Amino acid sequence: xxxxxxxxxxxxxxxxxxxxxxxxxxxxxxxxxxxxxxxxxxxxxxxxxxxxxxxxxxxxxxxxxxxxxxxxxxxxxxxxxxxxxxxxxxxxxxxxxxxxxxxxxxxxxxxxxxxxxxxxxxxxxxxxxxxxxxxxxxxxxxxxxxxxxxxxxxxxxxxxxxxxxxxxxxxxxxxxxxxxxxxxxxxxxxxxxxxxxxxxxxxxxxxxxxxxxxxxxxxxxxxxxxxxxxxxxxxxxxxxxxxxxxxxxxxxxxxxxxxxxxxxxxxxxxxxxxxxxxxxxxxxxxxxxxxxxxxxxxxxxxxxxxxxxxxxxxxxxxxxxxxxxxxxxxxxxxxxxxxxxxxxxxxxxxxxxxxxxxxxxxxxxxxxxxxxxxxxxxxxxxxxxxxxxxxxxxxxxxxxxxxxxxxxxxxxxxxxxxxxxxxxxxxxxxxxxxxxxxxxxxxxxxxxxxxxxxxxxxxxxxxxxxxxxxxxxxxxxxxxxxxxxxxxxxxxxxxxxxxxxxxxxxxxxxxxxxxxxxxxxxxxxxxxxxxxxxxxxxxxxxxxx
Amino acid sequence: xxxxxxxxxxxxxxxxxxxxxxxxxxxxxxxxxxxxxxxxxxxxxxxxxxxxxxxxxxxxxxxxxxxxxxxxxxxxxxxxxxxxxxxxxxxxxxxxxxxxxxxxxxxxxxxxxxxxxxxxxxxxxxxxxxxxxxxxxxxxxxxxxxxxxxxxxxxxxxxxxxxxxxxxxxxxxxxxxxxxxxx
Lengths: 545, 183
Known about the structure:
Number of helices of chain A: 17
Mean pLDDT of chain A: 92
CATH topology of chain A: Cytochrome C Oxidase, Chain A
Mean pLDDT of chain B: 85
Low-confidence stretches of chain B: none
Number of domains of chain B: 2
CATH class of the largest domain in chain B: Mainly Beta
CATH class of chain A: Mainly Alpha
Distance between the termini of chain A: 34 Å
Number of strands of chain A: 0
Strand order of the largest sheet of chain B: 3-1-9-5-7
Structural class of chain A: mainly alpha
Order of helices and strands of chain B: HEEEEEEEEE
Number of helices of chain B: 1
Radius of gyration of chain B: 24 Å
Largest sheet of chain B: 5 strands, mixed
Shape of chain A: globular
CATH topology of the largest domain in chain B: Ctag/Cox11 (Pfam 04442)
Strand content of chain A: under 5%
Radius of gyration of chain A: 23 Å
Oligomer: heterodimer
């Protein structure tokens, strides 16, 4: 089959040597690198949009009382911040990385379905724009929380004109990510270089393969749930309407059946990138490759059977509470395997601390902290105190910001030189890291205290005893937000030429041992692997060394 | 595109699209699955169809225990009614029958079909709170401006675990006129 692929691609090259000219290139492109770039830049833009909303939230919470915004707008901000960050920033950023890296890493010429790839991206843009348009509607953007719980989200006070737009937006985003997931699975399963067996694949490819299956399994369920909301509101069904025999608690079950796998959709590719970066800078093969693959698969499986730990307080028989409590705690086992494997990879390694490695190490430490607070909330009786307080806010921000976001930054620093052929400014990179790592803890660590002391989430005003920690948290938030402008500067600067230093094909010392992409020229040519590689690096699959 | 590869893609994509469609269906299948799980008591719920009318059984009255029963009433958003219990609180002995009247008035100038939904706190007490007569068993039709005094007769099953001393029963009236099948 390999000969056939090569023959086809030679032919393909005859009539297409480089990108189309002009702006239209970016609209009609089917090149995985172009689409990857579009996804990543769009995600970066949304990161700043969602981040600005977070700044509004932290400004309002700087001191007790109502300062800047009215409560309904505040609630719109919390709702939209979550939706934009989850569906506009983190998920598209990982799809962008997948588009760029998976074909390079597995020796494929492009994604399996390039035209569908283009369509997924533009559907994402349409979905996010539709969502953003609700901000300008009469009654404002949705403000019942990103989970869209009925009956609140269906009531006139929260519904405005925005709800159907938000729901159609979720449909578009869902279809976009399902198409992206199908494309990724088809690419990985059908287009690997013949020499690459499944258990030779880099972990980033493995984690994305598993994530793609999660997406296909749960995005349609979420689409179904919001469709029920829509018909309840406008077509007189009673899925969640108690008077018609429905039950709002049913929504919570359906939502979290989607919602829990969704949080792993955002963290599994994070694990994959960390497992790619750490070995390069530790100058050692990844420790426990096979156990990493199995741990990822176990976490994905467990994510389907633990959803009700998000709703311990809703009323469940004691057996249900216990089941969901223990099932949740089991997730700590495969996650622990991963954390120990990363640590063991670094153990006695000849480590250097370039910016991508700094972000990765911070990820290992801070994600572990987020994991521990997750374990605390897995304890059903204790969760009754933490539920819907700032403790849960601190928990999931620790697993998303200094985990997913830090790793996305690390990935940017790690691969940008490869993609652009230019080296980023290491000094500013380090400054960006230290400012981010310190301020993210000033921002989120005090929220643990606030939560344990009983401050509820999603409120614009609070009791006076919470004032000090909120002010500290807000200061951390402003520093963190401002620091990210450095990242924007570095990305733009690197694309335009960076330090002027010409990077080697490997970019990082001995990187070619760790992944196929480093054997290609820098910057990566527009078309790569038109002939699949005949050998693939297997150092990372060595379990013992 | 290479034909063998193209065929492989088509086959895989077909399967994956079917999985996605099946999962959309599964989302809807969760609705009946949920009802079954509730019937099996895997999920605690005090739904109207769970709170069945029971016939008046003669329980031995436990004079040693006294349970405080509180009544709360709420109107769902935009339900044009007045609705309140005639007494807010009652001390009862388990096994003893009591009747409480609720006052309901249709404030609107139109026929209204509405439905009262009960909710218990603590939720686990719902299965010990037995009603022999209640306006909540079915939808209530109100003529314009009609006033109804609606009785609810109940007994607390003496098997109620000793740890429960107060039961709060909350009724919410929903304007169901648009959705009702009985209008």
